[in-house]
Design brief:
heterodimer; A: alpha/beta; Ubiquitin-like (UB roll); Alpha-Beta Plaits; Rossmann fold; 4 domains; 18 strands; globular; B: alpha/beta; de novo design (two linked rop proteins); five-stranded mixed β-sheet; four-stranded parallel β-sheet; binds flavin mononucleotide; binds iron/sulfur cluster
Chain lengths: 597, 387
């Protein structure tokens, strides 16, 4: 099928498959062609025109990202004509761009800035158009800030929101000189269907879409001697943080991360993985309980399939898009919010600290977690359960601010309590991880035996990018209490990226699917590809992070949530039993139907 | 006044195709035959770009796909063009016939007319005509229907790929090419898109034959052309004339005696100053036009003319690609600054280079053709830009 063709780029012979673009062919030959609107995760737009090249004989230049290579094609990527055109284009972008780089959050991590420096743009070639444009900044959202004065109209965000997430909160409005990226009726992001997933932030080449950062607030808390600042770190942070600090993708830096957090001055460095394990216990029991009420009690009020609730982008998505399915969501809070609720109750009690003085910080691969922490229902400790949410990127900045040489830090251990975790919690960071972790526990609860998969690796539910993964697990030889599940085929589905989530929910709605348990992660690849992760995040980077997560899982001494000793302890000392009264008070929540406007 | 330019009456007159006779006759011919005739006729698209119609149809016919479309581009947005309106109201049957012949040749069952938003008033009459057409089509056992889709007034939606996007209910933004419409057009299916007048020319060729047709025009510009004449002329209006005439003859006929420049091909065309009237051929070997001929006399400021065009482009650019979106703004702001004295005269050279970059890097014909009017006006009327 894949026929080969040969072309020449800058005099170098390159052989590629039919259908390959000039850009990909050039990359294969290690020839760098600059790009701006291009992104590996998205369809080709060809609108910035920075990647133009000369193709044999033709007067006009062609965009390398969009032009397929053809047999015998002669491509020149570095002629005077090409360089001048590119320089003009970058200068044009700069003339519309509010280039106050030193005040910009993306200073030093901006693709436009990088191109400008590569092209040695000196005094502006063109007239400054910024004063002509009535640019607006949307600062009303707790998670994402949108600054139109930084926008270069590459539409990466638009394509992200539509293609990967099926949300289309962002779209192109107006035309010509007034063309801009906007929202429904130009409402602020917090008033539209935006899920705060931050995938647009991950792909914005400039500072037009950034996370709202809480770095100064966290420093202030750390410096305040009257505050006890606890920090929790999500599973997917430890396999990506290194990238923010100059390390190659796919490095597991758990120990260095803990060391760094201690050096930053946090009073206790704890682990979201602990509450990930707790989530498994609660959610696993919730699933079994729902199955029982449906299969044995024939209770028509119980909603199946049950869907996971750890991904706040997914939660806001379903609230907007399928509000009639909110009863299907697990009532479990996300691990972040379980942690927050326990930090100011259980932890405070055990440590004898006044919860009023506790500042609870979380480090997340996610921007939607910022919004989640601000939800009015997330105050079950009597205080705001999680005070500040920082992304992996923000933590990277703090570590640099503190002057730490990250790579040379020693490996240190999480503090106790709420610092112990298992491999099951680690894999929360990847699509399919919650499913696998839940099955490792639920199967054992029901049968008294470990899941029948080699080394506990339930490969069939490990999610794959760009794919909805279905699996069924047959339950056999149950313990007497669970005999109603004997022979039941537990039908599971795993999806990542909201576009796929939508497909799954649509099939549930149409009645074409018959699942028991649905795992959804809002971001492509799961949390490892979260909107708060280091930039760039692309297919190659994600696959390295994924490998790191499963490597970390395999390296953990305990790999099933219910075997986490701190979990046993918290039930014994504090919570009582799964789904018990205290759990409901602190660990479970409810959802809000929202409009699809 | 003696007539200096040869009037032709192929498009509007002679034969109104009352009973779809040409269509009926043509349907009995082989596709190869029809394409051969079109090729021999030398017909090039009348929408502006001048692509050989026979080749377009041939490519689409060769696509091994069942679902194909015929689209008639009646968006007519080029400033100074108003001839498609006239054609569609006077001889709609010829347009439908041309589309039907195309459908037969390429194997399409469905056709669309993309009608400029401002032409909504023509809709009722066209619908009546279409009803008739569908009756005849049935009689002729032709499995082909035509539907009218309305534009919404954006110039860019006349660009073929933006037009498809618009027809599909999306924002009218040009697509990357390749793939070309003959491979992937409306709904990503092979599509032939032609200008209103092109379809009528097909009917003319089918009726009088390529040999007769070739007698009109020049080597590269065969046949007649419907011109929309406006500006400083005692007789503005629509004229069907032979293609390939020297501009000087046109000016002698239509000018007011004081013509200093003619803008050939609308805002995206070229400005020809008086001194070049003699050597300029109106046609594909010289200055091509989709029909717009704007005549300016010595009372006109060419700075204002250019400023107006740039304002038009600045607003009508779809805004997606950098060279066009920002380039148009810069050209307009740039000539303003030079005029005011805020920028030195040499800044015009910088702008000229910019327009050249726009020509070779913009994504679609809109951005690519801004340089046409810009460079031809600035080069020929530099003093007017400065003083
Ligand atoms: C900005 C822009 C506007 C255009 N507007 C029209 C139009 O209004 N009518 C038209 O027939 N072609 C228009 N075209 C040309 C079309 O893209 C296309 O080339 C034409 O419809 C092909 O038909 P033809 O081969 O019969 O000329 C436009 C092109 C551009 C770039
Ligand atoms: S050249 Fe202009 S109209 Fe065409 S795609 Fe680019 S911005 Fe849009």
């Amino acid at each position: 099928m894949a026929e080969k063709l040969k072309l020449q780029i800058d005099g170098i012979d390159v052989t590629v498959n039919n259908g390959t673009t000039i850009l990909d062919a050039a990359r294969k030959a290690n020839i760098h062609i600059p790009t701006l609107c291009y992104h590996e995760d998205l369809c080709v737009a060809g609108n910035c025109r920075v990647c133009v090249v000369e193709v044999g004989g033709s007067k006009a230049l062609v965009p390398a990202c969009a032009m397929p290579a053809s047999e015998g094609m002669q491509v020149r990527t570095n002629t005077g004509k090409v360089r001048l055109a590119r320089k003009h284009i970058v200068e044009l972008l700069l003339s519309e761009h509010n280039a106050d780089c030193t005040k910009c959050y993306k200073n030093g991590n901006c693709e436009l800035q990088y191109l400008a420096s590569e092209m040695l743009t000196g005094d502006p070639l063109y007239i400054d158009l910024v004063p002509e444009h009535n640019y607006t900044i949307d600062r009303f959202n707790s998670a994402i800030i949108k600054d139109d004065s930084k926008c270069i109209r590459c539409q990466r965000c638009v394509r992200t929101c539509e293609e990967l997430q099926s949300v289309s909160a962002l779209d192109v409005a107006y035309k010509g000189n007034k063309m801009k990226i906007s929202t429904f009726f130009e409402n602020p992001l917090f008033e539209v269907v935006c899920t705060n997933c931050g995938q647009c932030v991950l792909r914005c080449p400039t500072g037009a879409l950034i996370e709202r950062n809480y770095i100064d607030q966290v420093w202030d808390a750390i410096y305040n001697p009257n505050k006890h600042v606890v920090v929790q770190t999500a599973p997917a942070v430890r396999i990506a943080l290194g990238e923010s600090l100059g390390m190659a993708p796919g490095k597991i830096v758990t120990g260095k991360m803990v060391a760094a957090l201690k050096r930053l001055g946090f009073d206790a460095v704890l682990d979201t993985d602990f509450t990930a394990d707790l989530t498994i216990i609660e959610e696993g029991h919730e699933l079994l309980n729902r199955l029982k009420r449906v299969l044995v009690d024939k209770d028509p009020t119980v909603a199946l399939p049950m869907a996971t609730s750890c991904s706040p982008g997914w939660i806001k998505f379903i609230e907007h898009t399928f509000p009639e399915y909110l009863p299907n969501l697990s009532s479990c809070k996300s691990p972040q919010q379980m942690f927050g609720a326990l930090a100011k109750t259980y932890y405070a009690q055990k440590k004898g600290i006044d919860p009023k003085t506790i500042v609870s910080v979380s480090i997340m691969p996610c921007t939607a977690k910022k919004f989640e922490a601000d939800r009015p229902e997330m105050r079950s400790s009597g205080y705001k359960d999680v005070d500040f949410v920082l992304t992996t990127r923000e933590l990277g900045i703090m570590i640099r601010q503190a002057g730490l040489d990250f790579e040379s830090l020693p490996n240190e251990h999480f503090d106790s309590i709420m610092g112990e975790s298992t491999g099951a919690a680690v894999i929360f960071g990847s699509t399919g991880g919650v499913m696998e972790a839940a099955l490792r526990t639920a199967y054992e609860v029901v049968t008294g035996r470990p899941v029948p998969f080699e080394k506990l690796n339930i490969l069939p539910v490990r999610g794959t990018e760009g794919e909805v993964r279905e699996a069924s697990i047959k339950i056999e030889k149950t313990l007497p209490a669970w005999s109603f599940l004997e022979g039941v085929e537990l039908k599971c589905v795993v999806a990542n990226g909201l576009a796929h989530a939508k497909r799954v929910m649509q099939s549930v709605k149409d009645g074409t699917a018959n699942y028991h348990f649905i795992e959804i992660m809002a971001c492509p690849g799961g949390c490892l590809g979260g909107g708060g992760q280091p930039i760039p995040t692309n297919p190659e980077v994600r696959s390295k992070r994924k490998a790191a997560i499963y490597e970390e899982d395999m390296g953990m001494p305990i790999r099933k949530s219910h075997e986490n000793p701190e979990i046993a302890e918290i039930y014994k000392e504090f919570l009582g039993e799964p789904l018990g009264h205290k759990s409901h008070e602190l660990l479970h929540t409810h959802y809000t139907p929202r409009k699809r406007y | 006044m003696a007539e200096l330019v040869q009037r032709v009456d192929l498009i509007f007159g002679e034969y109104s195709d009352e009973k779809y006779k040409v269509l009926e006759e043509t349907l009995s011919r082989s596709n190869e035959d029809i394409i051969k005739d079109l090729l021999n006729s030398g017909l090039k698209g009348r929408g502006g770009a001048g692509f050989p119609t026979a080749m377009k149809w041939k490519y689409a016919a060769e696509q091994p796909v069942k679902e194909k479309y015929v689209v008639c581009n009646a968006d007519e947005g080029e400033p100074g063009t108003f001839k498609d309106r006239e054609i569609l109201s006077k001889v709609p049957r010829k347009v439908f016939s041309g589309m039907a012949i195309c459908a037969k040749v390429i194997g399409a069952k469905k056709g669309f007319i993309y009608l400029r938003g401002e032409y909504r008033f023509m809709l009722p009459a066209l619908q009546v005509e279409l009803k008739e057409f569908h009756v005849y089509a049935k009689k002729l056992k032709l499995d082909f229907t035509i539907e009218i889709k309305m534009g919404s007034g954006a110039y860019i939606c006349g660009e073929e790929s933006a037009l498809f996007e618009s027809m599909e209910g999306k924002r009218g933004e040009p697509r990357n090419k390749p793939p070309y419409p003959t491979v992937s057009g409306y709904l990503s299916k092979p599509t032939v898109i032609n200008n209103v007048e092109t379809f009528v020319n097909v009917v003319v060729i089918c009726r009088i034959g390529p040999v007769q047709y070739r007698k009109l025009g020049t080597q590269d510009s065969r046949g007649s052309k419907v011109f929309s004449v406006s500006g400083d002329t005692p007789k503005p209006g629509i004229y069907e004339l032979e293609l390939g005439m020297p501009l000087v003859r046109f000016v002698e006929e239509f000018g007011d005696g004081d013509t200093k420049a003619v803008q050939v091909g609308g805002a995206s065309g070229f400005c020809v100053p008086m001194k070049k009237f003699k050597d300029t051929i109106i046609g594909f070997e010289g200055v091509p036009t989709g029909g717009s001929m704007m005549i300016f006399n010595s009372s006109r400021s060419m700075y204002n003319v250019l400023h107006n065009y740039l304002g038009f482009f600045e607003e009508e650019s779809c805004g997606q690609c950098t060279p066009c979106r920002v380039g148009c703004q810069q050209l307009k702001k740039g000539i303003e600054a030079v005029k005011r004295g805020d920028k030195p005269v040499v800044y015009l050279d910088q702008l000229m280079k910019l327009s050249e970059t726009m020509k070779i890097t913009a994504k679609c014909g809109l951005g690519q053709s801004v340089a046409n009017s810009f460079s031809s006006i600035v080069n020929n009327f530099k003093e007017e830009m400065i003083y």
